């Protein structure tokens, strides 16, 4: 039986044509027409004035923080449940990531926890739109305005997610996206920054290219970075962006298939959801096993793996990882993250694949169920 992978890139458009054009014309490095075309397409997609292409999502986050002016000793508030790059990029600036708890169900940053964590050293907030579900940006922006803080959206996983019809990437001071091979839009490795701030965009572009003055070749007024995307990467990305509406529509269809297939035992699960104001992009269809701990969750995943179904656990909270370990309590993160599983989510899935994943999950949950003690 064919193995069902948790994520796979779908390259069914003009990606090959555009890459071959790069090869035929010798524009294979960090100059070429596809970089500008991809930036324009992505800015329009997000509804932002500017898009700045980078060589990966982590460098785009770091570039944004440097351009904003984060300094040693500053503090940035981030959710404890996220991919480690969110915290690492703050550390790259010799600043301090301040971890706060998350909301049940979404594991997105809890605005009430943000307010309590603000100190005189706080410079900004980095909400993460985890697994494609948008964080509560209205509440986060309101807090930021009251305290004079920047808001950098970590939208690495959330291409196309919306709040009240507005796409993530256009809601904070700036936003960072990843184009890694498992993302909704991919360039293999790659990233993108978006912002409406003209001055900030210009500084990002300056720093991205080693700090070279755009009007004076080999004159470097600042210390910069080599965070440039190649024309080949951008060619793949442009081919992807031409299909982005289909990609998002197919993921919503897959989410609906999961909801239908999991319905017979949904009482044992917490499933993804949307509100009247939010639209999930379903980078990953993420579930939580209600009656489980990390041991049972991992046993369920092993059972599914043996059946040919790849899954992934929810990210470990930052506060349990050695570089960011804390003794503080994060009750929601601790109670939820250990029960979370990412099910296969990519455009290559058929309805029969989703049904097979659901049946494998049901079987695994049954096989790992803890026997109930008999009444006396």
CATH class category name of the largest domain = Alpha Beta
Q: Based on CA inertia axes, which overall geometry fits? A: globular
| Spatial strand order of the main sheet | 1-9-8-5-4-2-3
CATH architecture of the largest domain: 3-Layer(aba) Sandwich
User: The CATH topology of the largest domain, please?
Assistant: Aspartate Aminotransferase, domain 2
Stretches with pLDDT under 50, minimum 5 residues = none
Largest sheet: 7 strands, mixed
By CATH, the superfamily of the largest domain comes out as Type I PLP-dependent aspartate aminotransferase-like (Major domain)
Tally of strands: 14
Condensed summary:
The protein is an alpha/beta fold and 376 residues long.
Describe it.
51% of the residues are buried. The longest helix has 19 residues, at 244-262. The protein has helices at 15-25, 33-46, 57-68, 85-92, 111-117, 137-147, 198-208, 231-241, 244-262, 294-306, 331-336, 351-368; strands spanning 50-54, 75-79, 96-100, 122-125, 150-154, 162-163, 166-167, 174-178, 191-195, 269-270, 278-279, 285-289, 312-313, 340-343. The protein has two domains: 15-241, Aspartate Aminotransferase, domain 2, CATH 3.40.640; 244-368, Aspartate Aminotransferase, domain 1 (Alpha-Beta Complex). It is 38% helix and 14% strand. The termini are far apart. The strands form three sheets. A seven-stranded mixed beta sheet has the order 1-9-8-5-4-2-3, with helices on both faces. β6 (162-163) and β7 (166-167) form a beta hairpin. The chain is globular and about 75 Å long. α3 packs across α7 and α10 (294-306) packs across α12 (351-368). With 376 residues, the chain is α/β, with parallel strands linked by helices.
């Amino acid at each position: 039986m064919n193995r069902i992978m948790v994520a796979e890139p779908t390259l069914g458009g003009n990606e090959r044509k555009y890459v071959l054009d790069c090869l035929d014309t010798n524009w294979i490095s960090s100059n070429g027409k596809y970089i500008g075309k991809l930036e324009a397409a992505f800015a329009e997609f997000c509804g932002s004035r500017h898009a700045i292409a980078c060589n990966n999502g982590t460098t785009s986050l770091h570039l944004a923080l440097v351009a904003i002016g984060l300094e040693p000793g500053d503090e940035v508030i981030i959710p404890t449940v996220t991919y480690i790059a969110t915290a690492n990029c703050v550390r790259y600036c010799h600043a301090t990531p301040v971890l706060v708890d998350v909301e049940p169900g979404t594991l997105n940053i809890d605005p009430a926890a943000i307010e309590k964590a603000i100190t005189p050293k706080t410079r900004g907030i980095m909400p993460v739109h985890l697994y494609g579900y948008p964080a509560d940006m209205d509440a986060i922006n309101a807090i930021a305005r009251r305290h004079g803080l920047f808001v950098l959206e970590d939208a690495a996983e959330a291409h196309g997610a919306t709040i009240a019809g507005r796409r993530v990437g256009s809601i904070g001071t700036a936003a960072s996206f990843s184009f890694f091979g498992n993302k909704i839009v991919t360039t293999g490795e790659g990233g993108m920054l978006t912002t409406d701030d003209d001055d900030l965009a210009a500084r990002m572009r300056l720093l991205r290219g080693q700090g070279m003055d755009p009007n004076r070749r080999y004159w470097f007024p600042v210390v910069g970075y080599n965070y440039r995307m190649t024309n080949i990467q951008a060619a793949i990305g442009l081919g992807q962006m031409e299909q982005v509406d289909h990609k998002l529509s197919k993921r919503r269809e897959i989410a609906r298939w999961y909801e239908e297939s999991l319905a017979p035992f949904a009482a044992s699960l917490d499933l993804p959801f949307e509100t009247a104001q939010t639209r999930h992009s379903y980078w990953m269809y993420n579930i939580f096993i209600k009656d489980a701990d990390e041991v049972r969750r991992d046993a369920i995943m092993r059972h599914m793996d043996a059946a040919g179904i790849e899954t992934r656990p929810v990210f470990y909270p930052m506060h349990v990882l050695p570089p960011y370990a804390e003794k503080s309590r994060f009750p929601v993160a601790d109670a939820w993250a250990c029960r979370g599983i990412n099910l296969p989510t990519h455009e290559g899935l058929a309805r029969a694949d989703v049904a097979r994943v659901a049946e494998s999950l049901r079987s695994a949950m049954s096989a790992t169920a803890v026997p109930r003690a008999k009444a006396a």
